[in-house]
Q: What sequence folds into this?
C-alpha cells in the first residue's frame, strides 16, 4: 500500500514550502447565475450566461432547462472552445447538465487567462424554453 500526496499537498509540505495558487487552496468561491428564455432560438446560437474575471478557476457549471424541443442540444464553453465545460447534450426533455456529471475533465479546474464570457450553445434544432445556469468559480 502507498501513501501519496496531491500536487498542492506536496508543495505546502515541502521544505522550503511552495505556496499554492490561491484559486486552488482557500480561494474565494463565487457564483454567476443567469437565465434565458429561448423562443425558436436557432441551432448554433450562443447565449452569453456569465463573464468571469481574469484568473477565475471554474469548478462547477450547472444548467437547468425546460424541454427545448425535439433534437435540441446544449453545450457550455467559451470563445476558445464551445465545449470546454460540457459537450453537446440532449435537451429535448426537461433536465439538467452539470460539469460534474456531463462535463469535460479539461474544463474542471480550468483557469481563465483573461476576462472570459461563458457561453451556452444550442445545437441540433431550434430551442424554445427556459435555460438557467450557475457557474461556480474561485478567484485569489
A:
Amino acid at each position: 500500500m502507498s501513501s501519496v500526496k496531491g500536487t498542492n499537498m506536496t508543495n505546502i509540505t515541502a521544505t522550503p514550502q511552495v505556496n499554492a495558487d490561491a484559486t486552488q487552496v482557500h480561494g474565494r468561491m463565487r457564483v454567476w447565475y443567469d437565465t434565458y428564455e429561448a423562443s425558436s432560438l436557432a441551432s448554433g446560437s450562443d447565449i452569453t450566461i456569465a463573464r468571469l474575471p481574469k484568473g477565475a478557476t471554474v469548478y462547477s457549471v450547472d444548467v437547468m432547462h425546460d424541454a427545448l424541443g425535439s433534437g435540441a442540444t446544449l453545450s457550455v464553453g467559451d470563445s476558445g472552445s464551445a465545449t470546454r465545460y460540457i459537450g453537446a447534450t440532449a435537451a429535448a426533455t426537461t433536465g439538467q447538465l452539470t460539469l460534474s456529471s456531463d462535463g469535460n475533465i479539461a474544463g474542471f479546474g480550468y483557469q481563465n487567462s483573461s476576462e472570459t464570457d461563458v457561453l451556452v450553445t444550442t445545437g441540433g434544432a431550434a430551442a424554445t424554453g427556459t435555460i438557467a445556469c450557475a457557474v461556480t468559480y474561485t478567484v485569489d
In short: The longest strand covers residues 28-41. The CA atoms of residues 48 and 119 lie 5 Å apart.
